[in-house]
Design a protein that fits this description.
This protein is mostly helical. It has helices at 36-47, 52-59, 63-83; strands spanning 18-19, 31-33, 86-88. It has a 3-stranded mixed β-sheet with strand order 1-3-2, with helices on one face. It is elongated. The chain starts with 17 loop residues before the first strand and ends in a 6-residue tail after the last strand. 20% of the residues are buried.
Length: 94
């Protein structure tokens, strides 16, 4: 039985709910779901340039978990860009 998922502190909110290639209707595109914690990991690690330790502490998770989230998010974004897919971003609860 897997361990229960630890609560994560999320501060970043996406500016939109979908990011897609230009000129192609979204109904015609394959979509990749980017989870809220993956979006947060990208924002902290790649945009704010925090170290993995700092970013993990900010989210309230281990450094290893942060690294796994960042790797997963980068893979999804790279796949979407290279294969012309849409990225579905987490919906913010404002």
């Amino acid at each position: 039985m897997p361990r229960p998922k630890k609560c994560r502190r999320l501060q970043c909110r996406p500016p939109c709910s979908l990011f897609k290639p230009n000129g192609i209707p979204s109904v015609e595109l394959e979509k990749i779901q980017l989870e809220a914690d993956e979006f947060e990991a990208l924002a902290l690690g790649d945009v704010q340039r925090l170290s993995q330790l700092e970013a993990a502490a900010s989210m309230g998770i281990s450094r290893q978990t942060f690294g796994n989230l960042l790797a997963s998010a980068r893979h999804k974004v790279a796949t979407a860009i290279t294969q012309g897919q849409a990225i579905v971003l987490p919906i913010s609860n404002q």
